[in-house]
Write a structure and sequence with these properties.
By secondary structure, this protein is of the alpha/beta class. Helices cover 39% and strands 19% of the residues. The site of 6-O-phosphono-beta-D-fructofuranose has 12 residues, from strand 10. Belongs to the phosphofructokinase type A (PFKA) family. Mixed-substrate PFK group III subfamily.
Length: 345
């Protein structure tokens, strides 16, 4: 029996509640642990703000989006005496093992705490699916489903008005959401951070479709982090940086709307899906993956497998060193993008 702490950090993600529920159910029923959930990510650890998690208060959350613990982008290592304060708070509450559930920023802190001697086990989370060392993260399939449904809806209005519609989806460093939803939704061009684009080529695809296949509308799906082949950074929605140094991306669809209309003469519109992609109920795949990750994380915490992250490899859940997961972002599979390109224009 041990006292386990957990937290959800960074952007929220459909599937977080299934992870929490799984850790609590197996942790209490099978191992007899006490489980504490820190509120609002690392902020809750810094402030020693936690609640005891029980079967009762984690029941009925499996299908709910967001996170029952709340989240924040608080960076321990940008806070004065952050590490010291976190270790003191964990000691004060008698936590033996901490399970941070988050993306590269949250897991980066988990890895540093592990290096400082505190037992941690990571659970990977991001709708962007760009975390290394795991084939998928939960939340991704939900985001893809939401974006695909939006693209389906954009088709009928684009067709009615003979318009080009540029749909901007999330994806800071990697174009996983853009590529999957674009392929599933039958997009005519997909733009991703891994392949800087030339707007004249984009227009050539659209012209080809309109002139040679008799179509009078087109759908372009663009990842928020897409950049141009002639250089420059991704479009930003605000100048301020978050505490992990990330700028707020957004706006490339509006630039493209204007440029495509000017160059082709086809009336164009932009739609930015934004946080709709992160909201609401997780799809079945993400509920199951979150549940499997939660069970594997509490097993690892109970077996002394510290400094590790749970990961999906093929159909199996395995452990990988946190370090491996953090070494670099997992970029879009080039073969997948090549397949998507077959349908451009
Ligand atoms: O990291 C996931 C992500 O959804 C990115 O794709 C996006 O840039 C970012 O979060 C937006 O975060 P925020 O909630 O801070 O606006």
């Amino acid at each position: 029996m041990a006292r386990i702490g957990l937290l959800t950090g960074g952007g929220d993600c459909p599937g977080l509640n299934p992870v929490i529920r799984a850790i609590v159910r197996k942790g209490i029923d099978h191992y007899g642990h006490e489980i504490f959930g820190f509120r609002k990510g690392w902020k809750g650890v810094l402030e020693n703000d936690a609640i005891e998690l029980t079967r009762e208060n984690t029941s009925g959350i499996l299908h709910k989006g967001g996170t029952m613990l709340g989240t924040s982008r608080t960076n321990v290592y940008k806070t004065e005496n952050g590490e010291e304060r976190v270790l003191a708070s964990l000691q004060e509450r008698g936590i033996d093992v901490l399970i941070p559930i988050g993306g590269d920023d949250t897991l980066g802190v988990a890895n540093k705490l592990f290096a400082a001697g505190f037992p941690t086990v990571g659970v990977p989370k991001t709708i962007d699916n760009d975390l290394n060392a795991t084939d998928f993260t939960f939340g991704f399939q939900t985001a893809v489903q939401i974006a695909t449904e939006a693209i389906d809806r954009l088709h009928s209005t684009a067709e009615s008005h003979d318009r080009v519609i540029v749909c901007e989806v999330m994806g800071r460093d990697a174009g996983w959401i853009a590529c999957w939803s674009g392929m599933a939704g039958g997009a005519d061009v997909i733009l991703v951070p891994e392949h800087p684009f030339d707007v004249d080529e984009v227009c050539a695809h659209i012209r080809n479709r309109h002139e040679n296949s008799g179509r009078t509308f087109s759908i372009v799906v663009v990842a928020e982090g897409a950049t141009r082949s002639d250089g420059g950074a991704a479009a930003t929605a605000a100048d301020t940086l978050d505490s992990f140094g990330h700028v707020r991306l957004g706006g490339i669809a509006f630039e493209l709307e204007k440029e495509i209309e000017e160059r082709t003469g086809y009336e164009s519109r932009a739609t930015v899906l934004g946080h709709i992609q992160r909201g609401g109920s997780p799809v079945a795949f993400d509920r199951v993956l979150g549940t499997r990750f939660g069970v594997a994380a509490i097993d690892a915490a109970s077996n002394g497998d510290f400094g590790q992250m749970v990961a999906l490899h093929g159909t199996a859940i395995e452990l990988v060193a946190l370090e491996d997961a953090l070494s670099q972002p997992k970029l879009l599979d080039p073969a997948l993008f090549e397949t998507a390109q077959v349908f451009f224009g």
